[in-house]
Design brief:
four-stranded antiparallel sheet
Length: about 400
């Protein structure tokens, strides 16, 4: 039971002032701008866009600033704002095969058509603090410029010899085939066949989920699910709770155009580009009476540069396909009800944090129950003590 609390309006308004003061911090330190967060904390913005279920870098940066860097609170702000937006329709499916690639790696083939494109990644850094970032905030520095062959560059105007020259940030123009398509050409990869009639995908934001959930529902829920939760589930399927040993078929990061067909025009209009991360995970399947041994896939797609999220999503996607392949669904990551009900961090945070609200009547009821049980227990013990001497006589 909840209790209406009266007389707290002034205190609540005061907390708003305290939040603003805590958010600003030391007044002698320059305030972060939304543009700075957007341009220099892109990975955090990507997470907020994913879990907030809204692609808007400026709003993601604003949400992070307003929430003091709390990604879940920032996602909550995005979700709340998203509900106020008018909906004009659904875009055409994006074609990631036509992605303008900035990064593309595979753990299955060394020599890929189009090549491996490392792009911007922390995978090959040493995870050592670069203290130069504290001293020279206006220059781009790296841990060891000699590693990339840029160490011979001359010192710049600020005297920092470790500054790297500008890299060409343009996306690659060449269309690169996806690795699962290479395996599919040999008949070694599970085919992706559209559902009969190719119905409109389920809309998680407008319709209630029912179980067992179809794959389009599962992918939607995971796309805006909590990255840490999905990461833990993905890890679990490799550590004895799923028995998978997957291979990264391909991870690609880049820009994809989004098109929309207005009813009054009848043809597609290019709305702009989105930065997406796509992961296709390759898993072995021993086959069954009806299906020959082959590779199966797990799929992950996320906003922005968010490889960990896309990889985790693809691992859990494959785990949730267990029943489709006649496999036993014994583990948490294979239970769609468990995964979908608990992966939404906005809902989870709300349910956990509601415990901070007044529960005075509930607690008083529990308190009185415990006191009554203790009294009855003490009375029974006293009664038993009284009957012991009589039994001895």
């Amino acid at each position: 039971m909840y209790v209406a609390v009266k007389g707290g309006e002034a205190a609540i308004l005061a907390t708003h002032d305290l939040i603003a003061e805590a958010r600003r911090g030391d007044q002698s330190v320059p305030e972060l701008s939304v543009a700075q967060i957007r341009e220099q904390m892109g990975l955090a913005c990507a997470r907020v866009m994913n879990e907030g279920s809204l692609y808007d870098l400026d709003l993601a940066a604003l949400a992070l600033k307003q929430a003091q860097g709390d990604a879940i609170e920032a996602a909550f702000l995005m979700r709340a704002y998203r509900t106020t937006l008018p909906r004009f329709g659904s875009s055409e499916p994006v074609d990631t095969a036509m992605m303008a690639i900035r990064r593309r790696v595979s753990a299955t083939y060394k020599d890929l058509p189009g090549g491996q494109v490392l792009g911007p990644t922390y995978d090959y850094t040493h995870r050592l603090f670069d203290f130069a970032l504290m001293d020279t905030p206006d220059v781009m520095v790296g841990l060891d410029p000699t590693i990339s062959g840029q160490g011979t560059s001359s010192t710049n105007a600020s005297g920092d010899a470790r500054v790297k020259p500008e890299h060409d940030a343009r996306a690659l123009d060449a269309t690169m085939p996806r690795v699962p398509d290479i395996l599919g050409a040999e008949g070694l990869m599970e085919a992706e066949v559209p559902i009969e009639g190719d119905p409109r995908p389920f809309d998680l934001t407008r319709e209630p989920i029912s179980f067992p959930a179809e794959r389009d529902v599962r992918l939607q829920a995971m796309a805006r699910g909590d990255e840490g939760f999905l990461l833990g589930l993905g890890y679990s399927v490799q550590r004895g709770f799923g028995g998978n040993h997957p291979f990264v078929g391909e991870i690609r990061v880049g820009e994809v155009s989004v098109e929309f067909v207005p009813e009054e025009l009848g043809f597609a209009v290019d709305l702009g580009d989105l930065t997406l991360t796509e992961c296709q995970m390759v898993n072995q399947f021993a086959g069954s009476k009806d299906v020959a041994p082959q590779f199966t896939r797990g799929y992950g797609l996320s906003f922005g540069h968010s490889e960990r999220k896309a990889m985790s999503m693809s691992l859990v996607d494959r785990a949730l396909k267990a029943r489709e392949f006649g496999e036993a669904a014994d583990y948490p990551a294979q239970q769609d009800e468990f995964v979908l009900y608990h992966s939404d961090n906005v809902e989870a945070a709300g349910f956990v944090e509601h415990l901070k609200l007044p529960h005075y009547v509930d607690f008083q009821g529990e308190l009185e129950l415990i006191r009554r049980i203790r009294r009855e227990r003490e009375q029974r013990a006293a009664s038993e003590q009284e009957t012991l001497p009589e039994a001895a006589e």
